[in-house]
Write a structure and sequence with these properties.
alpha/beta; 14 helices; two-stranded parallel sheet; single chain; binds zinc ion; 429 residues
Length: 429
């Protein structure tokens, strides 16, 4: 939606009326600014009024096609909002932590999105609190507000306020949004980064008895830590099976386990399901406990480097003729070999060090201490942008874009390569 609004504004629209797919109006946000704006974010806020109507009203409007008046009220300000953070200290490396988080604010009553998630965080805090002697590292649990009305303002604030601590010490972060909803019996839409995929799948299998399918996180939810280079898994957990959704003639929505009441006044108590919630609570508690208690961090960067190579080669197909990608390719070979060797007996501290540059180059365009806007950010975004511009922008501009993308990738790979060769000399002595 923010991309559509920006595009309409650019093309001179005076206002926008969005027609929803059905009878219901799902609330949404149309600013691309991630969290509280900084000075560059100020200029990106939408300036036109935007409203949503349901399908029947929309159809009528289209039929009439006359003039329409839009009246909206806009209230923006910096406000103090609650951010609740609890911490259970780990035994052997208390400064390192697993961050489990979800949003406390909701649209309307918001039972499925996100009271069930908030209850899950509370239950995980209780269960892990009772098992705190088994935690090697700390567990931080955060309930953000400002998710819906501040575009992830709570988590973005935390990322800015605690940037260096997160960058140095956060092992992995785990988002919890809309678990335990009615008819949510499958794990087919789970987010994970490549390095956490195996771990996340294993957790779903072990704690629920089900198989999981998923994909890399989209630029959404409170995933506010990509620029800092922190790995993540989960966001949505269980959802309604696609087959059931189709059978009922429902369209896809972004929360409430796929229940159509998402982001409407109808997201009330009957959207939650006791058994599903209990199952999802077990999953979150189990996964966070493992991440904080097992000897080894839940990360495998061999998978990340494989993914990086696939995406790189996909774009290189377009860009090879514009810039020399030979060195990037041979650095990728080196890093692939070195990561394989490293992961035979990986050291936790080095895992975090190699993860930061890899995640940044794969997931973010902006620098480490900034936030990319809430717009689609494809994997390896600098390369994606250069490749998408071929044939649409002057060759000189595409070449410059590709050169900068290449330099950034080479620099990230060199950093990883340096850490791993140091690692090797340490392990040999
Ligand atoms: Zn949510």
């Amino acid at each position: 939606m923010p991309a559509r609004v920006a595009e309409l504004e650019r093309r001179g629209a005076l206002g926008a009326v969005f027609i929803q797919p059905g009878e219901r109006i799902h609330e949404g946000i149309c600013t691309p600014v991630w969290g509280s704006p900084d000075t560059s974010g100020l200029g990106r806020e939408p300036r036109i009024p935007v409203v949503s109507v349901n399908r029947p009203d929309g159809n009528e409007l289209v039929e009439r096609l006359g003039t329409a008046t839009i009246e909206t009220e806009l209230d923006t300000a910096w406000r103090r909002i609650p951010v609740v953070v609890a911490e259970l200290r780990g035994r052997s490396e208390p400064e390192r932590f697993v961050l489990l988080h979800g949003h406390l604010d909701s649209w309307h009553v918001g039972v499925g999105d996100n009271a069930t998630g908030d209850a899950t965080l509370l239950e995980v805090a209780r269960v892990l609190g009772a098992a705190r002697d088994s935690l090697e590292r700390s567990v931080r649990i955060a309930w953000w507000s400002g998710h819906s009305h501040g575009r992830y303002a709570g988590s973005a604030w935390y990322a800015a306020e605690h940037a260096l601590d997160i960058e140095q010490n956060c092992v992995v972060h785990v988002n919890c949004d809309s678990p335990g909803c009615r008819d949510a019996t499958v794990y087919e839409d789970v987010y994970w980064m490549a390095e956490t995929e195996d771990f996340a799948k294993r957790c779903v299998r072990d704690f629920t008895g089900l198989e999981a399918r998923g994909r890399q996180p989209l630029r959404a939810g409170d995933i506010s830590f990509n620029n800092l280079g922190v790995s993540t898994f989960f966001m949505l957990s269980s959802t309604m099976p696609d087959s059931l959704r189709r059978e009922r003639g429902l369209y896809a929505v972004g929360g409430c386990g796929g229940n159509i009441e998402w982001h409407t006044e109808a997201d009330t108590l009957e959207i939650a399901d006791r058994d599903n919630l209990l199952r999802d609570m077990r999953l979150y508690a189990g996964a966070v406990h493992r991440a904080a208690a097992e000897d080894r961090y839940p990360l495998d960067f061999r998978a990340t480097v494989r993914q990086l190579r696939t995406v790189f080669e996909f774009h290189a197909h377009e860009l090879d003729k514009l810039v020399d990608l030979g060195r990037a390719r041979s650095l990728l070979d080196d890093v692939e070999t070195a990561t394989k060797r490293f992961h035979d007996s990986p050291r936790n501290a080095s895992m975090l060090e190699i993860g930061r540059p890899l995640i940044r180059v794969l997931y973010a365009r902006e620098g480490p201490y900034r936030q990319d806007p809430a717009l689609e950010v494809p994997l390896l975004p600098d390369f994606a942008r250069a490749a998408a511009a071929v044939g649409h922008a002057p060759d000189g501009a595409v070449r410059m874009e590709a050169l900068r993308a290449r330099n950034r990738l080479e620099s990230a790979l060199l950093a990883v390569s340096r850490i791993l060769s140091h690692e090797r000399s340490v392990s040999r002595t």
